Amino acid sequence: MVSLWSYWRGGAGNQRFDTVGGPMSYASELTRRNSTAVLTGEGRDSGTLRVDLSWRIRTNSDFGGSQRKWLDNWRHPLEVFKPAEIKGHSHGVANMDFDLACLYELTDGSKGVVQSLGGLLGEFNEAPYIKLSGDDRFGTGSGEHLYINLDNKDDLKRLLIFVYIYDGAPTFDRADVTVTLATPDGKNVEIGCTDPPPQARSCAVVLIESENGQLVARRQVKYVYGFQSEIDRLYGWGMTWGRGRK
């Protein structure tokens, strides 16, 4: 059992575990200082790489700073062991509609996008080997998911995972948005959409590239005030864009 002293010293605070649906596994986080993770190799070259989008609306207490949180933990020390608040869609509360999408480039030179906008949901067993679970707009708590077929990882040159707000106000700064890469061996790599500027509508979250036969993820977390075309220009995808509807 982890003592309160160990928790406050950082022994438990630096480790996060996910036991849902399988054995205990370590969840690492990509940050500015630790920005890269190898997703394949060592028995992870087949199966499915799942990309999850989740968020939680930031309450007024979230803006109170770390001092208030420290005081609450001091007054109620057992609260630190309670499960974290469930993340998910809360469209009705703050008119939020975050969407998960992926720009892709295959080794044969073909390019495209997988997204709910325009019904471009992709294919899992044929090119582009990426499938979107659909647009979960009305708040089920499960968020949205991309499934990447690692059996065809040698056909993938680069993938850019991004999040955009199609409907409603640009509210990245009112939510804690997280993208999680879940590898077949149970490793979870989390990327938080931190420090969003006001009015940003899209965020390039993580770039996955093929290097020496492996897929390597690199944290991006770059915001733009427009949509897919601005993400495209930022990364030089060179596609032609038009207006679309869900």
UniProtKB/TrEMBL annotation:
<protein>
    <submittedName>
        <fullName>Tellurium resistance</fullName>
    </submittedName>
</protein>
<dbReference type="InterPro" id="IPR003325">
    <property type="entry name" value="TerD"/>
</dbReference>
